[in-house]
Amino acid sequence: MLKWIPRVLLLLVVLVIATVLFAMEPIAKWAIESEGSKAVGARVTVDSVDIKLYPTHVALNGLTVANPQEPMRNLLESERISADVDTKALLKQQVIADQVLLSGLQLYTERSTPGTLDGSMPPPKPEQEGSGMPSITLPDANAIMSEEQAIIQAEVNDIENGFKSLESKWQEKSKTLPKEETFNEFKQRWEALKKKNTLERLAGAKQLRDDIKDELKQFKGLNKELGADIDMAKSLTQRAAKLPSVQSQRIMSKYGIDQGTEGMLRFLVGDEATAMVQRGLTLYRETVGDLTSKEPEPTQPEASSELPVNILIREILIDGYQMVGEEKLAYSGEIRDVTDKQDYWNKPITMLLKGGVNNASQLQIDGIFDQRGDALKSAFNMALKQLALSGISLSQSPQLPLQLEKGLADINANFAVDGSDLSGSVKGLVNQAKLLVANASSENDTAQRLAKALESVSKLVMNLNVGGSVSDPIVKLKSNLDSIIGDVLGEELKGQLKEVEADVKTKIQSKYGDDLNRLQEKRELLADYQSLLGDREAALQAIMKELM
Hints:
Elements: H1 5-40, E1 44-52, E2 57-66, E3 74-84, H2 87-91, E4 95-107, H3 141-174, H4 180-194, H5 198-254, H6 265-286, E5 311-324, E6 327-339, E7 349-356, E8 363-370, E9 377-395, E10 402-418, E11 421-437, H7 445-454, E12 460-468, E13 473-479, H8 481-520, H9 527-547
């Protein structure tokens, strides 16, 4: 009977292995969706996972990653991601691969269900009451103040702390100045010397002069330092006086309403332009941005063969497409040297993609992501030439829905990130353009006039500039349409812009006026110390004069 035991054990082992292999793919699918969703803050789903052992090959089919900023859009989706990976490294939660294939990639696709973690629908955008102008809703001053209050308060606090620092500094320095007892001591020494013979008086007078000169030396430096600090106090006072004007102008610039009729396209397509920038930054943060985290390096035994990285991929081969209006823009290329520890290879991550419509060479994208220093430095460039556009929505305004019905576009984009600082621009030229304003509000005369003016445009020039930070970008948009829109809107809009800025300025003055007035009164904060310094120096000079 004992001879059956090995066979039974072998059968059990085979059953266990079969069960593990059968369950491995569902477990991997669950883990990817669960942990991925937590990491992104939005739904991550996979249609299926294929795993083969010896050598280990992993493939994700039908991956979608929802956009945490726009739950009804996907950040990205791909038909298949596959790679041969290092089995031992995978068990240690490391991804080590020579090559990863990423096929059927698409960005910013629409979803039929919300990508929120709980599956709830995002709240609808609040409807803005019409201002009598098509698709232009100037920001409410109260809402602006609520949004900007922390920044304004920080500026007030900074001015106040500047005064406190100066006052504290000179309170301490005044304690080191010669005191009344010192002057009396010098006078007593001189009176005593007067009673001595000539030789003793001369020798004593020389020593007394040297002692007084030592005391006077500090006044030269103190006077210079005090002069600089008096200028600083005046500067702080001026900052306090100008704060309402400076802050209101800053706010108008931030919200893109500081340009008068020169930036009017911002009101028509500003939401779409800002959303485009935000989508790109969200993709950046969720992919390359994650590589910026600086974790302590694990201590490795001297003889250890383990790689000190979590991700190490020689190249990612990419193919995909993007719908641009009614055109399918296909692309392919590669991302090289992907790792979370670039010091390991001592080279940055690089990207190069090319593509076009119907196999034409119209698109080139290149990028470099360098995290070998203390901060991640990135540069991204895109050139798109002679792309036929059709059916591009420029504005979703219910009063003035604006669409580029057709055109031939040249677009150049350049962005740079240094740590959290962001800068960039997009320059677009669309020739043979035809703008379509569908169903402009018949009840709004201004909308009707704008629709008629825009439909005569045959050339579209757009310049978008981005500044600020990765977490808080500032987007400005100008166009050759600005003058057309400005002519139609005329003085009516200029008056509204001035009213908003004046209202913001008034609210700043009302909320912070008392604090600002109090700070302006500190202009002569150091006057007492200046008088004290002058009196003490004059007293020493008077004694010195007697010794001459």
